[in-house]
Amino acid sequence: MPKRTDINSILIIGSGPIVIGQACEFDYSGTQACKALKEEGYKVILVNSNPATIMTDPDFSDRTYVEPLNVSTLEKIIERERPDAILPTIGGQTALNLAMDLDSKGILEKYGVELIGAKIGAIDKAENRERFKEAMQSIGLRIPNSVVINNLQDGLKLIKKIGFPAIIRPSFTLGGTGASVAYSIKESETLLRNALNASPISEVQIDESIIGWKEFELEVVRDSKDNVIIICSIENFDPMGIHTGDSITVAPAQTLSDKQYQLLRNYSIDIIREIGVDTGGSNIQFGVNPEDGEVVVIEMNPRVSRSSALASKATGYPIAKIAAKLAVGYTLDELPNDITLDTPASFEPTLDYVVVKIPRFTFEKFPQTKPELGTQMKSVGEIMSIGSTFKEALGKAMRSLETDNLGFDLIENDKNKILDVLASNNPKKLWYLANAFRVGMTTEEIYKITNIDEWFLNNIREMIELELKIKSICGSTLDEELISIAKRNGFSDAIISYLVGKNEEEVRDFRLAHNIFPSYKMVDTCAAEFEAFTPYLYSTYQSEDESNPTNQKKIAILGGGPNRIGQGIEFDYCCVHASFSLKDDGYQTLMINCNPETVSTDYDTSDKLYFEPLTAEDTISIINKEKPDGVIVHLGGQTPLKLALDLEKAGANIIGTSADSIDLAEDRERFKNLMEELDILQPESRLAKSSEEALKLSSEVGYPMIVRPSYVLGGRAMEIVYSKDDLKQYLDEAVSVSNKRPVLMDRFLNDAKEVDVDAICDGEDVVICGILEHIEEAGVHSGDSTMVLPPYSLDKKILDQIVTKSKLIAIRLKVRGLLNIQYAIKDHEVFIIEVNPRASRTVPFISKAIGVPIAKIASKVMTGKKLTELNFTEEVVVSHYAVKESVFPFIKFPDVDTLLGPEMKSTGEVMGIDNTLPAAFAKAQIAAGNNLPVEGNAFVSVKDDDKPKIIKLCKQLISLGFNIISTQGTHKFLSNHSIDSQIINKVKEGHPNIVDLIKENKIDILMNTTLTKKEILESFSIRRTALTRQVPYFTTIAGSFAAVDAIAYLQKGEINVKPLQEYF
Fold first, then answer.
1. CA distance 637 to 616
2. Any residues with CB less than 8 A from the CB of 207 and at least 6 apart, and which?
């Protein structure tokens, strides 16, 4: 049937900030949906709080609301825009839950808005644990024995009937939030309470354990005529017991017999029909008993999911785009396959290659947490690789992760340690499987410990046997046949060089001299049965090459690799804009990336997509094949930047800022000399190449100081130390100092105001795109800081200095493109902190705040255009405020402190935009999940240096109707200044104490600052309890004042919504 003509406008609900369990895959799906619906002529209204996404660019929807994702905001938007329909199935769990809330509160009925894609009944049937269980039983399928509870008492009683271990799963949550495995009644109380708190409807399902069973997922699409197709089968390498988002996965499924696959296929079709998902994609998960083949249904997501993004990239089938078009009436047979053009979307994709996904973890950011996986998701991103065989894909996947390992090179010879890791859910288990084979363990022995299918284990065993063969045969001379076999089995040049004791270049030269190089195959959805028109390519060591390079002028863009803390979706945003911009200028654009969640790896973002690891070897191979006129390394964060020198050495033309200029900004000694030459102030600093030298030089720098390794991303291993003892502990525990890895020591400017500046320079002219003032004082990583544009408290003299210094630095560094500079203002003096001659994570935020696509402009500048040609020569002055607030994953890591510092911890961000700063700040807090109270009790307890600053703060709180509760020292200070407060014990002083009050819901907001390590340790339980109880918590005075101003604004009840299109 043709598209619907009875609806004209459609509201799309986005997924909000990047969090563990809901990442940039929903930017990918949301962008596809917006494009698809606009293509069909519908008015598209988008609401999403995440400024770092492509989907929130004003070009992708007719009305773009960057507003908090809650019911009251949505009602205001619905009232203002009067959409005919809402599409809730491409914004993850967030969008589904909001759709349910809009229905239950009668808002959909009130405004006559229809849900398309999935109706309320279908969503509830899939998400409500009890209803889903009944639905599965009605079609003869089994789910694990389970009970559904709504209170702790029932839970403790019924969990005994299920037996231990028991799986605890809250309803309506994302990424397994609140899920756990209970092994005894003793630990059940805490786990059940956490799960009930995590569920928005206080509903928890307790399942029998099927830990150790095999896990499979099927991606299913249905249309309004009840046509159902299977897009992809996905097999989890890890057995049941690890959240599927944290498991290594393989597509298509490798260990199912054809009969078993057909069974799961039929079950999936029965399930999607029974649940009643009208149109679009769904993800269905199964558990299969490896002993007897028994099948149980785990769950169904009645929406586009994380696995949908993976399945789309694995097959080339655009699930989100097709789902959007099916939602407005089309059927699968009416829609063309974009890649073949000849086949309809009703053809099921066929794969003649293997895809491997490996999650990316950042446990190193949270050393207090044990690196252990379970039913609650912990990964912050993932990579995907494609190869002709599982071994080839696995080898490529391991080197895509951007950890210290490029293959099975994490060596451990201690068998007891190997056995410990195999028996655990340690995220490094994959590498320990290889170690187990090295120490002589058999496939059967390893299977009995891990329950990882023997097919996978045998493949790894064969890779290790090949490794040993290479070591024994390739001594002083390399063996052509063996090197060729190694490449077909996924071995990188770096791994081969490590095995044979040569350097990587020698291996590469030998390989090329013997014509051992990769060919490039197309992902075409149909195993080459039909011609493909969209060049989406992967490398493999086979004969035929399908890349067909042209002589057209072309630019290669290197993406950002896997999402992780410190390098997120913001960099993908910049890469996508570069591709769009350069395509407009007539260049053929080549995207190189390995992240399946992003818009940059969508098949139609660039003219050619190479789904490949971002290593020197893999990138140089593509550049040698395509011979691009230029290569852009400045937009994907630190990942491609690290490759610049290797690429230049191999003959690549790096356009934009030169590698030497990048090194001048990164090398501390060269940079320090440049700043002295330009007469720009820097905090006192030293560089040490040994622990002894660091301790000696520390007295020249003075305490407190910031210490960190050189060449880091996201403030990795960065810390403020207050004494020589602190420094010694840092050097002993946090870093390994050497000539190759020196440690940097900078004087910490206490109570300084930090500022970020983003600019574009064309070598002659410089335009300041935005000056962002941090709300928190110096000491919090810029990626974690709350930022405001335009600056709200800096005087014109300081701002003029910042502009002058920024332009001077840009010209002196010979920047061609984007530049980020961080300053600290202390005692009316401007100090330089660091310069990054590349795209920064603030680029998308500034673009949305000023209404200018600065990454697009910068890309054109990098190819040689001047800012005057582009009519961008003056700073944009705005009459509104935009606030960037960070979002953190602390709830996923129980032993981690929520206190912020110089090492970045946030996974994502939100934006608040409004005409006044209090309104914008309030929106940003609400969007980040910090629901500010408008009345109640405020806990205030601060360090001595901050006490004079809280007089005004507490008077404001009292004037707003709040009661002040404080600890002894703060109470005494307030009393001396005639401010009333109620005393409460510190935790160490006994009961009742502040933690007791938080647990009893008697505290509505907390403002607490600390100084010493002892104070930080003693107040840890306050911060953790506030986090779990969702009580807003501020650890800086500046943040507390901003919160109080926002509360005053909220009390007026005047929150307004406005699309970005009306701000400019």
1. 16
2. 143, 144, 145, 146, 162, 166, 167, 168, 169
Q: Between β-strands 63-65 and 43-47, what pairing exists: parallel, antiparallel or unpaired?
A: parallel
Separation in Å, CA 629 to CA 404, 815, 858, 957: 31, 19, 17, 61
pLDDT at 659: 87
DSSP H/E element including 454: helix 454-473
Residue from 758, 840, 244 nearest 560 by CA: 840
Task: Decide if 557 contacts 575 (C-beta within 8 A).
Answer: yes
- C-alpha–C-alpha distance, residues 885 and 910, integer Å: 5
Q: Are 167 and 155 in contact (CB under 8 A)?
A: no
| Owner of token pair 């910049």 | 574
Q: Where are the beta strands (DSSP E) in 421-483?
A: none
Q: CA torsion sign, 69 to 73 to 78 to 80?
A: negative
Residue 341 structure tokens: 């053009």
- Among residues 6, 23, 10, the alpha carbon closest in space to that of 564 is found at 23
**Side chain identity, residue 110:** K
Alpha-helical runs (H) found in 871-941: 917-927
As a whole number of angstroms, the distance between CA 349 and CA 312 comes to 10
Q: By the 8 A CB rule, do 789 and 881 touch?
A: yes
- Residue 506 DSSP label: H
For every residue of 755-782, DSSP letters joined together read EEEEEEE-SS-EEEEEEEEEEEETTS-T
**41-59: per-residue pLDDT in tens?**
999 999 999 999 999 999 9
Determine the Cα–Cα distance for residues 80 and 9; give it in Å rounded to an integer.
12
CA-CA distances (angstroms) from residue 87 to 12, 66, 99, 104, 434?
5, 17, 9, 17, 46
**pLDDT tens string 134-155:** 999 999 999 988 888 888 888 9
Q: What is the pLDDT of residue 179?
A: 82
The predicted pLDDT at position 129 comes to: 78
Question: 732-740: long-range contacts at Cβ-Cβ below 8 A with a sequence spacing of 24 or more?
Answer: 732/691, 735/709, 737/688, 737/689, 737/690, 737/691, 737/694, 738/689, 738/690, 739/689
SS3 category, 502: coil
Integer Cα distance of 236 and 453 in angstroms: 10
Buried b vs exposed e over 271-287: b needs ≥16 C-beta within 10 Å?
bbebbbbbbbbbbbbbb
Q: Give the closest residue to 44 by CA, choosing from 22, 24, 59.
A: 59
Q: Give the chain's residues under pLDDT 70.
A: 1, 174-176, 339-340, 525-533, 710-716, 734-740
CA-to-CA distance for 79 and 90, rounded, in angstroms? 22
- What pLDDT score does 526 carry? 65
777 close to 732: Cβ distance less than 8 angstroms? no
| Triad 620, 610, 860: Cα angle to 5° | 80
